[in-house]
């Protein structure tokens, strides 16, 4: 439970959650970390806490550096429990500490959850001298809660970024250059796709607000601390927040007796015949959060379902609900499916795609019973005609 030094008199004192596999509906196959940072200065400062079950791990790491009762300032960047639920416990260990939070939403949120503590609300432009260092507070509302803020230390050129630039990734190695870069970039993309995607405009506003800051380190709320590849993750956020898509296709489906599956395979092959890389996702065997990571930056989206009880398959309904909540940008799509007699599902899928903001570019593809070779060939021709 030792703290890890990340700069002179600045320590990582967070916790590693190796076993977490679900974060409010988002599957996290590589676990996560809850990052907190201790700054030793005239005013001893703690940036963020951890999820409540890990409070002893946090206190243990702090205690390896100083007595927790000596903490003067606690910065609470975000009310969500994975960052704040250990706050009452930490406040009891550090009774003289002033708790810094954003005005008005951080103050409202912390008070609603934890009652009256020693809060001080800050707004854009506010700063705090803690001795040889200054902390500057930058609100980042709706990235991804109304209360979110980041903290910048100009003397250290460190941005304590909370949920921005992070990823759900459990590791014993704290820095980006100590881990496999492609793995952490994938997890950062997955994090953005499944949590921050609806807030692209807010992400762009945050990037603009941070644009003038010199950063030698981004100390995130989850995952690794960026020090070698800062330009890469910041540029990725610029691309992602602008809704940039690649010439790729994603095909998502469920099937009862294999007929809609046959259509899905024909669609994938048709895209491939035009040089468009296509991903094939049977929803029964793939997590929605993994699918969304691919959908996020793919230009085309095809969703298929047979009809059951005059409806689409519940698995596909759940996926479309998830998609609609994340509101992807700049996607072209269509619905497909096989049916026995009613065939209502395909139209319902199309309606939900449209409601999610997907531009419908191909008439819904409906085939009865077991598709014939000629029908599948016609389906392929429709796809290749779409691409041009």
Query: Major β-sheet, in short?
Result: 7 strands, mixed
Helix percent reads 25-40%
Shape: elongated
Name given to the CATH homologous superfamily of the largest domain: Ribonuclease Z/Hydroxyacylglutathione hydrolase-like
Strand neighbour order, sheet with most strands: 1-2-7-8-9-10-11
Rg over CA atoms, rounded to whole Å, is 24 Å
What is the strand tally?
22
The helix tally amounts to 12
How are the secondary structure elements laid out?
Layout: E1 4-7, E2 10-12, E3 15-17, E4 22-23, E5 26-27, E6 32-34, E7 37-39, E8 45-47, H1 55-63, E9 73-75, H2 81-84, H3 87-93, E10 98-102, H4 105-114, E11 119-122, E12 127-129, E13 134-139, E14 149-153, E15 158-162, H5 181-196, H6 200-210, E16 217-220, H7 230-241, E17 246-253, H8 259-273, E18 277-282, H9 288-296, E19 298-304, H10 314-326, E20 332-339, H11 344-355, E21 359-360, E22 365-368, H12 373-387
Parallel strand pairs: 8-9, 9-10, 10-11, 15-16, 17-18, 17-19, 19-20, 20-21, 20-22
Antiparallel strand pairs: 1-2, 2-7, 3-6, 4-5, 7-8, 12-13, 13-14, 14-15
Helix pairs in contact: 5-7, 5-9, 6-7, 8-12, 10-11
Tell me about this structure.
With 388 residues, this protein is of the alpha/beta class. The chain has two domains: 4-241, Metallo-beta-lactamase, Chain A (4-Layer Sandwich); 246-383, Rossmann fold (3-Layer(aba) Sandwich), CATH 3.40.50. It has twelve helices and 22 strands. The strands form five sheets. A seven-stranded mixed β-sheet has the order 1-2-7-8-9-10-11, with helices on one face. Strands 17, 18, 19, 20, 21 and 22 form a six-stranded parallel β-sheet that branches. The protein has a five-stranded mixed β-sheet with strand order 12-13-14-15-16, with helices on one face. Strand 14 and strand 15 form a beta hairpin. Helix 6 (200-210) runs antiparallel to helix 7 (230-241) and helix 8 packs across helix 12 (373-387). The longest helix has 16 residues, at 181-196. It starts with a strand and ends with a helix. The model has no long low-confidence stretch (mean pLDDT 96).
């Amino acid at each position: 439970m030792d703290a890890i030094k990340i700069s002179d008199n600045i320590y990582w004192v967070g916790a590693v959650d190796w076993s977490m596999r679900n974060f409010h509906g988002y599957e996290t196959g590589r676990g996560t970390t809850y990052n907190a940072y201790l700054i030793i200065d005239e005013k001893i400062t703690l940036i963020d806490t951890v999820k409540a079950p890990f409070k002893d791990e946090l206190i243990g790491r702090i205690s390896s550096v100083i007595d927790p009762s000596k903490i003067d300032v606690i910065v609470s960047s975000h009310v969500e429990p994975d960052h704040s639920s250990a706050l009452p416990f930490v406040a009891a260990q550090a009774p003289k500490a002033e708790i810094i939070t954003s005005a008005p939403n951080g103050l409202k949120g912390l008070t609603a959850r934890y009652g009256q503590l020693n809060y001080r609300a800050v707004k854009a432009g506010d700063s705090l001298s803690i001795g040889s260092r200054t902390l500057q507070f930058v609100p980042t509302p709706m990235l991804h809660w109304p209360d979110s803020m980041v903290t910048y230390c100009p003397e250290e050129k460190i941005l304590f970024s909370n949920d921005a630039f992070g990823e759900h990734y459990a590791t014993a190695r704290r820095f980006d250059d100590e881990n496999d870069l492609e793995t952490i970039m994938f997890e950062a993309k997955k994090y953005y796709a499944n949590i921050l995607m609806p807030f692209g405009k807010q992400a762009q506003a945050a990037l603009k607000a941070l644009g003038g800051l010199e950063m030698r380190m981004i100390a995130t709320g989850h995952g690794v601390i960026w020090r070698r590849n800062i330009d890469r993750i910041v540029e990725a956020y610029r691309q992602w927040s602008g809704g940039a898509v690649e010439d790729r296709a994603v095909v998502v489906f469920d099937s009862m007796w294999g007929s809609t599956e046959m259509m899905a395979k024909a669609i994938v092959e048709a895209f491939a015949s035009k040089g468009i890389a296509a991903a094939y996702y049977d929803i029964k065997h793939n997590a929605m959060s993994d699918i969304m990571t691919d959908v996020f930056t793919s230009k085309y989206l095809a969703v298929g379902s047979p009809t059951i009880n005059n409806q689409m398959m519940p698995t596909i309904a759940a996926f479309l609900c998830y998609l609609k909540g994340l509101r992807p940008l700049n996607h072209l799509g269509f619905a497909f499916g096989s049916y026995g007699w009613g065939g209502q599902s395909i139209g319902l899928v199309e309606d939900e795609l449209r409601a999610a903001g997907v531009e419908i570019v191909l008439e819904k593809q409906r085939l009865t019973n077991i598709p014939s070779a000629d029908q599948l060939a016609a389906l392929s021709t429709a796809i290749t005609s779409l691409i041009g």
